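User: Sorry, what's this?
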Amino acid sequence: MPIPRSSRRSFLGLAALAPLAAAGLSACGTSGPAGSSGGKSGAGTASMWALSGQPNEDIQKNSVAAFNKLGKGTMNVTFFQNDAYKTKIRTAVGAGQAPTMIYGWGGGILKSYADADQVEDLTSWLKDNADFKDKFLDATWGSATFDGKIFAIPCNNTQPIVMYYNKTQFEKAGADLPKSWDDVMNLVDVFNGKGVAPFSLGGQSKWTSMMWLEYLLDRIGGPEVFNAIFANKSDAWSDDAVIQTGQRVQELVKAKGFIKGFSSIAADSNADQALLYTGKAAMMLHGGWAYGGMKSAQPDFVKNHLAFSNFPTIAGGKGDPKNTVGNPANYWSISAKASEDEKKVAKAYLTDGLFTDKDIDAYIASGGLPVVKAAQSKLAGSDNPEFLQFIYELSSQAPNFQQSWDQALSPTQADALLNNVDQLFLLQITPEKFASNMNATLGK
């Protein structure tokens, strides 16, 4: 099944943590000279740290084991649980003791590494290896690119945010799936009149509410608005598109668009997904990973009663309706502090060990969409062909794939963002106050 939401989150709030001794954090397993991969150390040795947890852990182990048999060096992989990894990697990078290959989420944390010259600038190397660069979905590069320079290689699956629908509830209401924001607001009245919540929302988790802002801002103002925020331009949050976004959100809340008590529902327990597949809610905005969760819990619902689409259009909006938001990919960076021999092995792994046919098949079998173009031809034979084809088209055809804001921004900004998003949805602050509060975080 897709990577859990907890595995793909940014390093939120970790800036405040005190550095921990490396010995105090235990790994979940290794593969390399001391493990079972059987590498040839004469060609050089490099290290990588990755996340534990299935199915990705086994896929990564098998990928490293296959590479180590090629005679192009030995890759030594160590696995950590999600929270332990986030703490350890920040400590290690800050101390100049990172592994050769650094696993991450791109965005604000990667940019901080790049600004501190802690990760390798891969721009020239990728230019010399254009065929390798071209194998990836074009939309995945944005979260690894800063000032025109690329600092990481996409890996794992792509997971855009999706609109999910309970077809049974739509059939009972005699309603069509929404294509525009006006349709959405009309459906709010329709489903409330039927005693069904229009939208499920795990608002206690806050990042679920944030997804609404991400799409609305893109549809209203286009990607340029958030690009200015990301660039820390003065008063960037005061753009009229941000204010309109807040107004639309609060209009939806006031119209009882979300299930009653949404602020006490936690997404991490998949309670919001259950509201959709049990028919208590008709619609849900959620990540691509929710498909796997619902399939595991209610396979019949997913097979016979689930529909999905991109986010609806907004009349007069500047954003391309094909744009998407979410998680373009996970990423591998190369430590700038690694030796030349270690960097050579790392680059060999990237070109010859990452996303082999066997890897691609394994990701697809797990219910995910690997971030390479070669995956498309394999989707028809998968267990989830319709959904994965939809995700492929959504990701590959998007003129802009906006990374989730809490990953794109710095930890300080992301913390403030989630708190202010929560207050916005609870009608405790106005859109103007939301913008003012967020302007105060710019550059932090």
Observations:
- The chain has two domains: 5-158+328-400, 160-325+410-439.
- The first helix runs from residue 5 to 8.
- DSSP finds 20 helices and 14 strands in the chain.
